[in-house]
Design a protein that fits this description.
The chain is about 30% helix and about 25% strand. The protein is of the alpha/beta class. The strands form three sheets. The chain has an eight-stranded parallel β-sheet. Strand 7 (about 130-135), helix 4 (about 140-150) and strand 8 (about 155-160) form a beta-alpha-beta unit. The longest helix is centred in the middle third of the chain and has 19 residues, at about 105-125.
């Protein structure tokens, strides 16, 4: 019988473990799974696009576990009281097809995206990076901020969003974080000036130009998170041409990432190769590096594994009678319990 983890279950899990420790453990799970890259049956996510947004399914499997995530992206949802991103996922046993875990992934997606950003930045950003510009201060921004602060040593966040209320919300949440200075800026250019790392996590479903080449300084690491579907970009193509570009899964990233602006022969490197030592990350302190992050199913697989393990340790979750528990597995009709009931003619 599968276990269900609700939004409240995941919130309780975070409260009991602590967000910094959970993010640290999630980075470990991600690194373990990315190191097994060749073992996974991988495919780009399946997307249904509409005028207002996108709904996607993200499947992946190895020899023992299968997972998928249902996720949407609807930037106008706040107008009707809904999150821009909503998600849930399943972890199942490959040998039998039996689902083991059904979990919320809205909160978890924000955490796994932040953990993935840190995992990559550990290999691409300069080790002495202490200042990060955070462009886009919406739903995912606090997760990115805290992940980089606690796990990568960022001490100052330079904040900008076209919506001042979003920045005020972030400041309200993080203003008492020990060792973290928050600097509110009046433009993207002001925010990125002097930053070691620039994280863009904007939401509009448009070909936007958040960062331009004139804003980029030697040695910067660009963590481009918001350009994640066809027709949605954040980086001027000239930014991509300035340095080494790392992606998650090239067949998906060329369709959905900022890389969609580039020709098919534009050189990119999948992150697993950097992790395995097959390709370099950063060559020198002056090099510009870009992580074209779109989100990949392997990251949700890792997150679901972590949720399964930690929730079991903490006794969280509820068994769900989702699959018939049959005395005779061949007698599916018997599960309707129609014996003794008059059936319609």
């Amino acid at each position: 019988m599968p276990t269900v983890l609700t939004t409240q279950d995941v919130a309780t899990l975070v409260q009991r473990v602590g967000l910094p420790d959970l993010l640290r453990r999630l980075v470990g799970y991600l690194e373990t799974d990315y190191a097994r890259w060749a073992e996974f049956d991988k495919t780009p996510r399946v997307a249904a696009h509409s005028q207002d947004g996108v709904i996607e399914l993200m499947p992946i499997a190895d020899a023992s576990l299968y997972s998928f995530k249902y996720v949407n992206g609807h930037p106008k949802n706040h107008r009707v009281g809904l999150p821009t991103v909503m998600a849930f996922g399943v972890l199942a046993d490959v040998a039998t097809g039996s689902p083991a875990l059904l979990s919320e992934l809205t909160l978890t997606t924000a955490m796994r995206t932040a953990a993935t950003s840190v995992m990559v930045a550990k290999r691409l950003a300069r080790p002495d990076s202490r200042v990060m510009a955070l462009i886009g201060n919406g739903a995912q921004s606090e997760f990115q901020a805290l992940a980089f602060h606690h796990l990568l040593g960022i001490r100052e966040l330079r904040l900008y969003d076209i919506d001042a209320a979003a920045t005020a919300k972030l400041v309200r949440h993080l203003q008492h974080t020990p060792g973290l200075t928050l600097t509110v800026c009046s433009s993207t250019a002001e925010a990125v000036r002097g930053a070691d790392i620039v994280t863009t996590v904007t939401a509009d479903k448009t070909n936007a130009t958040i960062l331009t080449p004139d804003m980029i300084e030697p040695g910067m690491h660009i963590n481009g998170v918001g350009g994640d579907c066809p027709g949605k970009t954040e980086l001027h193509r000239g930014v991509l041409e300035m340095g080494r570009v790392i992606c998650e899964f090239e067949p998906q990233s060329r369709i959905e990432g900022d890389m969609q602006q580039m020709p098919a022969d534009f050189p990119v490197t999948e992150f697993w190769r950097v992790l395995a030592g097959q390709a370099p990350g950063r060559d020198n302190d002056a090099q510009v590096t870009v992580f074209d992050s779109v989100g990949f199913a392997l990251e949700d697989y890792s997150a679901l594994r972590l949720l399964r393990d930690v929730s079991a340790q903490l006794g969280l979750g509820t068994p769900l009678d989702l699959i018939p528990q049959m005395a005779d597995p061949k007698d599916l009709f018997g599960e309707l319990h129609l014996d003794g009931h008059r059936q319609a003619a």
